[in-house]
Design goal:
- The chain is an all-alpha fold.
- It has four helices and no strands.
- Helix content is 59%, strand content 0%.
- Helix 2 packs across helix 3 (40-47).
- The longest helix has 16 residues, at 3-18.
- The N and C termini lie far apart (24 Å).
Length: 71
C-alpha cells in the first residue's frame, strides 16, 4: 500500500465526516457510496488506503463532496 493512498484515505474520511445529512449527522460511508454509485465497500477501501482512486473515482467523489478540481 502506498503512503499517498493512506493520506488520501484520511483526507477523504475527514471530508466525508464534515458533510451533514438532513438530520445534521455526519455522512456515513454508505451514504457517500450511494451518492457516488461506488458503494460502501469501495469508500471503505479508499478511506483505509487499500485502494487508489483513478480519475473517474476522483471526479465522482469531488462531485458528491461539492469540491472543485483545485480542492
Amino acid at each position: 500500500v502506498q503512503p499517498m493512498s493512506k493520506h488520501f484515505g484520511r483526507v477523504l474520511a475527514a471530508l466525508r465526516q464534515e458533510q451533514r445529512d438532513e438530520n445534521w449527522r455526519p455522512w456515513t460511508q454508505k451514504h457517500l457510496g450511494t451518492l457516488t454509485g461506488l458503494g460502501e465497500d469501495i469508500i471503505a477501501k479508499l478511506e483505509q488506503g487499500r485502494r487508489t482512486p483513478d480519475a473517474g473515482t476522483l471526479a465522482l467523489l469531488a462531485g458528491a463532496l461539492q469540491l472543485t478540481a483545485w480542492e
